[in-house]
Amino acid sequence: MTIPATNRQSTTIRAIRPADAPRLVGLMESAWRVAIRISPVEFHSRIRTLPGVLAEDPVGVRGFIQIEAAPPLAFLVALGVRDTWHLTPYLDLLLPAVEKLARRLQADRLVYIGGDEWLIQPLLDRGFTAHEWVTTLERPADLPLPAVAAVARLRTAHRLDLSRLTHLDALAFGELWHKAIGQLAEGLAQAALFLLAEMEGQIVGYIWCDIYRSHAHITRLAVHPAYQGRGIGRQLLHCVLSEAIAQGAARITLNTQEHNLRAMTLYRRFGFTPTDMRMPLLVKPLG
Questions:
Q1: Interval 197-207: pLDDT, tens
Q2: How far from 34 is each of 24, 40, 51, CA to CA, in Å?
Q3: 17: number of CA atoms within 13 Å, CB side?
Q4: Domain boundary among 127, 153, 179
Q5: What range defines the domain where residue 252 resides?
Q6: Which of 69, 132, 220, 240 would give a disulfide with 105, using CB separation of 3.0 to 4.6 Å?
Q7: CATH of the domain at 221
Q8: Residues 187, 71: Cα–Cα separation, whole Å
């Protein structure tokens, strides 16, 4: 569809094509209104395949939104808008097209997770509601690690583990927090550390850690519900923290839901403390 723009030129909303990738990367690198739910490395590797829509005029790309569908949910993965274009018309033009795309991909809810203050209120004004809050915790690398018992066999995860990891993730987390098989595949391919725990012949937990120079981030820690409380999470966390520090990490962070008291207790035991970074999980029913 073509919509008159405020500068009297015409702005076209259309589906993103693989050939658009260089222009989208250029916008992301030059604009200050940028929100990315996945790591920069993962974004650059997937920009050609993530579904989405963009707004362009004769000057170039004004803004875009890409999503990741994990029916019945679709997640806002990447957003970018030129500094010279106001945010309100950007969202009013692109969100309806994104919602239509999400429905076509069998999603009935659109989800945003992030701490971009410039984006949160405009999304709330457009039908999103706050479902819960996520907080970022941090620990310095020079803090001693507590002793833990070796209760499970730990090893590096491989591509052949993908289907079992996906099943475990679905058991360990609520619907809004599931990792799609594509996300786990990317993690296996690109994470600095991706370990799993085995007991009684089955995978009972895993941990995923990304390292960016001297910053390590625990992206995921999951334990099978039937095996929780046995020290598997402690063993996985201890192992990956030790290895991240050995690889030069000076700062280690992770995110967890504020109401998840069990996880908070575990992370505090390992020296993590809450920061002032909080992110809402926003959800919009698509009808």
A1: 999 999 999 99
A2: 11, 12, 17
A3: 6
A4: 127
A5: 136-279
A6: 69
A7: 3.40.630.30
A8: 20
